[in-house]
């Protein structure tokens, strides 16, 4: 399964009552696939506000997105949690919805050790035939998948990639020692180009909601050997990358989408909209 080089971690559009807005979800999917050139979409990841979506909402989103995309890109379902049994069940149900892959965040809050992390992902992989992308984001989960644990997991046939928000030396080591089929994605827009320089395959992006075409061009230029042009585009994008993460994600990117004519609504508590100063900085980048 090739998920492509630019994957968008899609926001979940809400209406004024805080419910999923299905019409805007359809419009957003079309915009991300056709205009922003996303190769794949992650549905119900952190950017999709997975902590405040019910399982019923998640499964509805998976099925709706698969149907609306109609083969135009790949759909990756976020089914990770800090409860292995819960993730096992949600992954089984997601597969029934017709998604193309699974994204599994490292278990948060209960702080498992490396053996616990390995067994968590191993147990989920055992109940699905879908390809799985690991998600290592220590700033949110407190725990970090080590290189050794990632390499152990990479030997499981349907664990095919990792989304890494780890230092470049960890990315480089995984790329060097993992099986040839195993891919590493940068999970941080600002680190995408440096990560690709040490062997990452692409990026799972938030900024691609509003700058997907430029990010795609940066990636294409890099892999075509035009490093100077890729570097220029990366530098051009850096201020946008910075401002989109001054607020807790996805507060800023949802505000940016609303400001650019894509009414995806606000965020669910405990997240809150940007304050006046934050909103001004976001608008200045658009």
List the helices and strands and how they pair.
Elements: E1 6-9, H1 22-35, E2 40-43, H2 55-69, E3 74-78, H3 84-96, E4 101-105, H4 114-125, E5 132-136, H5 138-141, H6 147-153, E6 159-164, H7 168-177, E7 183-186, H8 192-197, E8 202-205, H9 208-223, H10 227-244, H11 251-259, H12 276-285
Parallel strand pairs: 1-2, 1-8, 2-3, 3-4, 4-5, 5-6, 6-7, 7-8
Helix pairs in contact: 1-2, 3-4, 4-6, 9-10, 10-12, 11-12
GO molecular function: 4-hydroxy-tetrahydrodipicolinate synthase activity
Site (Part of a proton relay during catalysis): 46, 109
Catalytic activity: L-aspartate 4-semialdehyde + pyruvate = (2S,4S)-4-hydroxy-2,3,4,5-tetrahydrodipicolinate + H2O + H(+)
Structural notes for this entry:
This protein has 286 residues and is of the alpha/beta class. It has twelve helices and eight strands. Strands 1-2-3-4-5-6-7-8 form an eight-stranded parallel beta barrel, surrounded by five helices. Helix 4 links the parallel strand 4 and strand 5. Helix 9 packs antiparallel against helix 10 (227-244), helix 10 (227-244) runs antiparallel to helix 12 (276-285) and helix 11 (251-259) crosses helix 12. The chain is globular and about 45 Å long. The model has no long low-confidence stretch (mean pLDDT 98).
Distance between the termini: 34 Å
Mean pLDDT: 98
One letter per element, helices H and strands E, the order comes to EHEHEHEHEHHEHEHEHHHH
Give the helix tally.
12
Low-pLDDT segments, ≥5 res: none
- The largest beta-sheet arranges its strands as 1-2-3-4-5-6-7-8
Largest sheet: 8 strands, parallel, barrel
Over all CA atoms, what is the radius of gyration?
18 Å
Number of strands: 8
Shape: globular
Structural class, by secondary structure, is alpha/beta
- Strand percentage lies at 5-15%
- What is the helix content? 40-55%
Active site: 135, 163
Subcellular location: Cytoplasm
Protein name: 4-hydroxy-tetrahydrodipicolinate synthase
EC number: 4.3.3.7
